[in-house]
Structures are given as C-alpha cells and as structure tokens.
Amino acid sequence: MSFINIFDSLLNGGEFWKRIHHMNEYRHTINADGGYWSARFTMPVRGTDIDMWVQAGLGKHVEVSSSTLDVYWIGFINKISVNYGPVVMSHGPLMDIANRVDLVYSAIDTTTTPPTTGIRLKTGFANDTDSQEKFGIITKVLSTGGVDEENAGEGSRIRDLFLDENKYPSTSNRWSTESTSPGLLTVECLGYIHWLNYAYNNETAGTQNASTKISTVLNGTYNPNNSWLPFDTSGIDSNTIQVGAWVNEDKIALDVIKKVVAQGDASNNRWLFAVYGTAAEYKAIPTSIDYLTRLSDPKLKITTTDGGKIEKWNVLPGKWLMFTDFITSYVSNDVDFLREDPRVMFIESVSFMAPDTLRLTGGTTDTLAQYISRLGLSGVGA
Fold this sequence. Notes:
Blueprint: E1 3-7, E2 16-20, E3 25-31, E4 34-44, H1 47-56, E5 61-65, E6 71-85, E7 87-91, E8 100-109, E9 116-122, E10 126-127, H2 129-135, E11 139-148, H3 153-166, E12 171-175, E13 181-190, E14 199-202, E15 207-209, H4 210-219, E16 232-236, E17 242-244, E18 247-252, H5 253-261, E19 271-276, E20 279-284, E21 291-293, E22 302-304, E23 309-310, E24 320-323, H6 337-340, E25 344-353, E26 357-362, H7 368-374
Parallel strand pairs: 4-19, 8-11, 16-20, 21-24
Antiparallel strand pairs: 1-2, 1-5, 3-4, 3-25, 4-13, 5-6, 6-7, 6-13, 7-12, 8-9, 8-10, 14-18, 15-17, 19-20, 21-22, 22-23, 24-25, 25-26
C-alpha cells in the first residue's frame, strides 16, 4: 500500500507537514522526455480540514512511497479541488499565476511616412514580491499587437493590470442540489520540470557543448528560483555537439532545452532530458534491453534481465522492454535490432494507477529526427 508524505514547499524550508495513508485513488505519469510529469490522488476530507488544504496546500512538496519505503514519484501540489455537500470548489493551478510579468509589443512609429511597424519593444518586468515570497517566482511574458510609441505607457498599464489580476491562485466554485458529496479532496501535482517556465536569454556569441548549454539554462543567472530550487546537474552526461549559445526573445527555458535535446549527438542518436525530483538527467537512450516480460504470465510481471522483479510503481520510461514469448520465430538481423525488433518496445511514457494498474506507451528512436533538427528544419515528409 502506498503512502504520501507532504512537506512545506521547498521555498519555505520543506519541513514535514502530513502523511496520507488512505486514498480513494492514486495515479502518476512519468515521461522519457520530462521525467516525473504529473500525479493525482483523491481522498475523503472532513469539513474542518478543507480550510487547511485550501489555505496552505498549493506548492507543497510531495513524495510518494511504497510500503517498502521506495520513493517513486516526487513533485509539488499544483491544484486542489473539493467536493463538499452541494459545493464543488477548485483552487489553482499554481503554475497559472503570474507574479513577474513583462509585455512585448510591436510598436508603430507614426513620425515616419508611411508609419513604421514591427519594432519589437518590451515594457520590462514588473514584480509582486508578496506573491513571490509565498509561491516562488512565476514568470509570464505577454505579447500584444501594434502600440503607438506615443502611447507606449499603455503597454505598462496592460502588464500591471495582468499582474494584479493573476498574482494569486484563482478559485472557482459550483453549487448544485444534485451534488451531495460527504467530502472528497482531489490533489493534482506536477513534477519540478514545470518550474522551467522562466524566460531565458543569453547574449553570448559563438557555440558551446549541448550539455553545457543545458546546465547553463538550468542553474544560470536567468533561473529566478535558483536560490531555493537549484537543479542537481550531476546526471547530465557530456555531449560535445556544438549548439548556438545565443538565445533572445525571452524563450521559455524548457523550450530552449527541448531544442537542444532534439538535436541528439554527433551520431544522430536520440538523447533524453528529464527531471526526477530536483535531479536533472540528460543522456543518450540506452543501447541494451532493461526490462523483460512474458505475455503469457497471468500476473504480467516485469523483471530485469537477470530476473529481478520490478514493482509496477517502479517502472521507468526511457528503457527497452522485451516481450520474451512474443513472435518467438522472429530472427533479428543484428543490425540496430532494438529499433527494428517487433518484440522490443522503447518505453516513452509510464502511467501507473494504484494498486497495480500499469500502462506503457512506446516511442520512436530513429536517427533521422535528430539529423533534421540539427539542420534547423522542422521535419520532412513523403
């Protein structure tokens, strides 16, 4: 039986808050590109506890463990919903708030004939420090159309109004005589990779190693939450393909990383980027089988290649799984057999629902995608 330990947010010290033993439902998703992605659990709740969850729940640190104390999912609370009597209330999502806001606008210079359009200008960031001290810095870069330079102050007013209306989590309510819930709490969580939502710029000329660029994006000066959420980069393997260091126009940090990851390595091998807890991993996909399973096994066990059992909640993506009793007459040509063998699946995504429901989604590992990305192309078709 799983249990969940909940702590104060990492921003606020991460002290233990409470342990959840009894849940109506628990599920999580882990992606090969992304790592711990999302989780959700529901549980009965008393009226006296609702205030505590709504007032203090968002942002709290979450660790999900098995009965053997294996921690198999880590993240933070992003949204809380309550069904209580005739009321359905939701608080959040946390990551929808904005307490550091900039506005980019395309200016119109009316002093020229004809007027000059398309001049990209920025108002500069405005901050709400009270919200930032409570939740961390959550950045939003807005964009709008043409603004007369003579009325450029309107851009700042738009930015400030957006900041004022979005600096705290939203709350929505629904009341219905058809709803008579005795009290049910739904908690939606996200992995810490979702904190890579800040604007990243780097005016360094030239190129750098792909792995160096990813480390710089994670823990460089542009990460506004680096003081309390420094990502462990010891799991970032060296990849020496050269990528441009220069980034402008307030690109979202995770999008910058995805663009680097998409280029693979010098041999066009696919690489993966994921965050497990606060530990970042960047590495090439494995070249050997990691998991085995038999389709004829009524318990559908998954094991390591040496026979060790893998509990369903501990199965990870980014690994190769072989169905050992499927198409047994197949003969491999031994040339890139992992990618071509129909008995083998590259696990792209893992969805687990307690106590023992597991869904694995397979992905592709072709080399063409990396080569196309390194050329700066978006794709190729036939």
